[in-house]
Amino acid sequence: MKVMQLLPELNSGGVERGTLEIARALVAQGHQSLVVSHGGRLVSQLETEGSIHLTLPIHKKSLSSLWQIRPLRKLIEQHQPDIVHVRSRVPAWLTHFALRGLPAHQRPHLISTVHGFYSVNRYSAIMTQAEKVIAVSDSVVKYITDHYKHCPPEDIVRIYRGIDPKAFPHGYQPSAQWINHQYTLFPQLENKFLICLPGRITRLKGHETLIELMERLQTDYPDIHAIVLGGADPKKKAYLDELEATIQDHGLRDKITFVGHTSEIREWLALSDIVLSLSNQAETFGRTALEALSVGTPVIGWNRGGVAEILSRLYPQGLIDVDDREALFQAVQQHIDLPQYVEPVTQFSLDEMCHQTLELYQQIIK
Asked: What stretches of 193-324 show up as alpha helix (H) in DSSP?
């Protein structure tokens, strides 16, 4: 098979990671893998792993992107992929117009993946107009069937995102050297019960809820400390300043540490005693929650979206009613008083995700 995946850029994020994982699986099984994007720091890894990258500026949500229809059509004519797999709205629209200009017998099969709960409108509807529409969780299947009645339910295929259990092994412990280095950088973390909130600094991730929780816990549990993993985009600097002022006002300066952007997510999740998932909006999947459970760290999160699907299967005692601050407080309290064991994770594997996706490709070609 020859498969061409399209996405805006190759820098970082779940869409990018999924693209690389499928590209790697295609190459491993002797298929040809092409990826079209505006480029980015993951291109060298993609090419090292055996795929061909074709650079095209298909990343801008503006009318100027329409100039890319003809160059994209030329790429499709030149490389003649069996399947074109679109993973984002601008590339999906450009592909829609590019394919319309090809004779029917020359058109590749079209697959899309709905990675997000996009705003419901004509612009987003393009993601549901493919021969097969991959949804990354049951929550996404429901989003599509609720909002896009034109998309036949039999064309929607739920394929969960997956992680490599070898990359997040059960019972993983960071090296003593790594831990000591972190204690040098953040001495306030040593000998503490660590509550971790992963996710970039935006209003969506529930930082205010964490501050409120820490304020309630600090009286009875002087040895608790919260760590916030994830960087702040320059555009979010004002929000970060706002958070730090709130922390200062509540007398929590020595109780909450912002670690910043980190590529050592596995180490931090393993070092933590509890990981929280407190997003203000449902997440389509909830990869970080799965990674934490995979290494054996308990996760407590709101009962919605993909995170709820993961917790209900793997760690139901971590599920709490959405926005129920009292239930959150009690759940965390119970985990501090009585440390919980997390069973090894045997679902949501990367191999399963790749196998199901490649199987869908072959099925559609047949």
From this structure: 207-217, 237-249, 265-271, 287-295, 305-314
